[in-house]
UniProtKB/TrEMBL annotation:
Residue span of region Disordered: 73-93
Protein name (database record): Mitochondrial cytochrome c oxidase assembly factor
Keyword presence, Membrane: yes
Family to which this protein belongs: Belongs to the PET100 family.
Biased composition (Basic and acidic residues): 73-84
InterPro entries named among the record's database cross-references: Pet100
Amino acid sequence: MGGPNLEVFKFGMYILFPIGVMYYFGTNLDQRFTVPDFWPKEGQTHKIPFEKDEIKDEIERLKRRRLEGRDRRLRAEAMRREAEGTGDGMGEE
């Protein structure tokens, strides 16, 4: 099959490939490829509630937010129907 020449080639690739990558890119990869302020600060992220009262407050906040969105959606839908002049849309086909 390949014989000793294939083994020498594989050994050379195993040794020379990482050395070539390090030579090409260098050793200061942190300075060359980092994006400043990529990760958010602690005050900019969500705070996960762990206490029972905090969890209850968060559930209430999410419920209020969902109901406000539902009310806005229903109002917008009613205004759209009113603008089209179809009334409530029941029984009219």
